[in-house]
Amino acid sequence: MATELEEKVDVNWDDLTFSATPTKSIYLTTCKEDGQWKPGELIPYGDISISPAAGVLNYGQGLFEGMKAYRTSKGNIGIFRPSENAKRVNSGCRRLCMPEIPEELFWDAIRLVVKDNEEYIPPIGKGALYLRPLVFGSGPVLGVKPAPEYTFLIYVSPVGPYFKGAMSGIHLKVVENFHRAPQYGTGGVKAIGNYAGGMYPARLVKTEEFSEVVYLDAREEKYIEEVGAANFFLIKGDVLASPELDGSILPGIIRKSILHLAGTEFGYKVEERKVHVDEIFEGDEAFCSGTAAVITPIISMTYRDRKMIYCDGEVGKKTMELYDGLMQLLLEQRDDPYGWLETI
């Protein structure tokens, strides 16, 4: 049953996709290049004005985050490990020469915009409220250098699964002629420029009925890096392996949490290391993770002329155990000994 708050908005909770839905408000504040961020304000959801010479438009000086707010079984609004997002934002700000955001200001902004858009949080089991914090050079600049002013904003949208039929599993194709990010570049931060380049290879594989691409490392083209914009995991026996963070892979917060749960609660031998592409043909199960995708089972992976099928009609048991363990924390359906879930 929808709550009175949820009934106030014109959203079909049973038909949510991962797409943008206009909501009530966004959070907005600005900061000079050498200044300090000040608490922002809520403004009505809608277009914002920006200089045609803005650093973000001309040189891609900007980053984003992805977070979710859930309704929990205890009647709270839960947000998973927001301090990790705040740390990752500031890591990216340092890398892109933007002023860092105080963690307290970041968390206050999240609470403010979520509370103001509370009616857009789906009922339990129907999805989540996706939060999109953005930090970018909004001041005008001509010449490759940091912008003189920056904007921090957060907009929100109710969303369903990132992949269509996500928990039924997805089919992936390993590509060799495209790469997500080189080592020592900006692959380790959520820079906006990391994502446009992936649209074309994703479009190509989708014409072949694959859900997404799998990228190999740019140096040797031997090792698995990411699944589109998600982290990769391979299970073989009691070993859970995920590509190591070597500067070209995004340090996913869900990834970090899965590795911890797998080792402490589920008895896996956890390995963060280079995962050779040939290993995909030796695994028992595989899945990908991210804030948007959470955990998505992989049905099959195709590399050159070989295809590995992990499950056919029934998602892998171990993948589902990890998914259930994580979602129970997100929805307050069990005790949280790690203090990961912040409630509003």
Give the second-level CATH assignment, the architecture of the largest domain. Answer: Alpha-Beta Barrel
Point out poorly predicted stretches: none
Rg computed from alpha carbons, rounded to a whole number of angstroms: 20 Å
What is the CATH first-level class name of the largest domain? Alpha Beta
Number of helical stretches of at least 4 residues: 7
Helix content: 10-25%
Count structural domains. 2
Taken as a percent bin, the fraction of beta residues is 25-35%
Sheet with most strands: 8 strands, antiparallel
Series of secondary-structure elements, N-terminal to C-terminal: EEHEEEHHEEEHHEEEEHEEEEHE
Kindly report the name of the CATH homologous superfamily of the largest domain: D-amino Acid Aminotransferase, subunit A, domain 2
Structural class: alpha+beta
Q: Give the beta-strand count.
A: 17
Sum up the structure in keywords.
D-amino Acid Aminotransferase, Chain A, domain 2; 7 helices; eight-stranded antiparallel beta sheet; D-amino Acid Aminotransferase, Chain A, domain 1; 344 residues; 2 domains; six-stranded mixed barrel; globular; alpha+beta; 17 strands; single chain
